[in-house]
Design goal:
The protein is of the alpha/beta class. Helix content is 40%, strand content 13%.
């Protein structure tokens, strides 16, 4: 039986409606997201082929640079193409544009794609944010077992998923991301994601609650705004109470809504909107099959989503 829909916190939330105030500009930005010149820069030919003069090794030399591999994989992820179709599509674009370059073959894209180093944060490491939000979502990996098992009447095998963990700033841009197995705890990615991110406050759901997380954020001078657990915590003496204990005690006495309003927890909803835009733009499945290729694919898609944010985003206002 389907669970009952949660009731809104107040009548203002129930009857509130918003409208887009910059619809003409935003509508034009949505069109530009599908333009191929959105991905092809004017200096695309510069550095397309690898220069072997500075780094010559034994064996066959690389024909294409890492820049060429990255640009081709970006176009592939933007339009959701298979490797073979991406090769034919890109070569056709180059021929019609008169560019004196060619696309690497699909095997080269696959082998060189897992060697790209795309783990750097997507922002300036010297910039300090007032607030960031962190969360994870599931991305389905490729497997044909489910269909085969159902066809032959055998026991159904659950689909295999991976987790995409992201951190966004107050404007909705992804500033860091990691990809893990679905069995990994969300709290294990706190330190890898915040390694190069400077912020004053972290917003997270109850999946990041824990005394160890509060201590990690305290050492980094980051204020934790994490939803407390619903169950009452163990009673401690006043001199031994930690920050997490005080937050949990406040929610037990005043209620979740009071804690939410006090900490302006509604700001965390931006990350849910980011996941919605991510999955509507790129889907909820991997195009790649290798583990390293999957990680790089998620990093490329996060960079693409940031470019879409730079092109234009809707500006909403509460309707009267």
């Amino acid at each position: 039986m389907r669970a009952a829909k949660k009731k809104p916190f107040s009548n203002s939330r129930r009857y509130s409606k918003f409208k887009v105030t910059n619809w003409a500009t935003y509508n034009n930005s949505l069109r530009n997201r599908g333009r191929i010149d959105f991905m092809i820069a004017e200096d695309l030919c510069d550095g397309w082929y690898d220069d072997h003069s500075s780094n010559r090794k034994r064996g066959r030399q690389k024909k294409y640079s890492n820049k060429a591999i990255f640009q081709c994989l970006q176009i592939r992820c933007l339009f959701g193409l298979k490797l073979r179709q991406a090769e034919g599509f890109i070569n056709y674009i180059f021929e019609k544009s008169g560019l004196p370059i060619s696309c690497p073959d699909y095997t080269t894209l696959s082998k060189r794609g897992n060697k790209l180093d795309l783990k750097q944060p997507h922002i300036d490491t010297d910039k300090k944010f007032s607030c960031v939000a962190m969360d994870s979502t599931g991305i389905q990996t490729y497997t044909g077992n489910e269909w085969l098992e159902n066809k032959h009447g055998k026991r159904y095998i659950r689909r295999v998923w991976k987790k995409l963990h992201i951190v966004i700033d107050d404007e909705g841009r992804i500033i860091a991301n990691t990809t893990t197995e679905h069995t990994k705890d969300d709290r294990s990615q706190i330190e890898p994601l915040l390694h190069c991110v400077k912020t004053k406050e972290l917003l997270g759901d109850s999946g990041y609650d824990g005394e160890a997380i509060y201590q990690i954020l305290k050492r980094k001078n980051i204020k934790p705004t994490i939803r407390p657990p619903n169950r009452p915590s163990a009673i401690k003496t006043e001199d031994k109470k930690t920050e997490r204990d005080r937050v949990t005690e406040y929610q037990e006495k005043r209620g979740y809504h009071a804690w939410r309003v006090k900490n302006n927890y509604g700001r965390r909803e931006r990350i849910e909107n980011t996941f919605f835009r991510f999955k509507t733009s790129f889907g909820s499945q991997f195009l790649s099959r290798g583990n390293k290729n999957m990680e790089n694919e998620m990093s490329i898609k996060c960079k693409l989503l940031n470019k879409m944010v730079e092109i234009g985003m809707p500006i909403t206002a509460r309707a009267s």
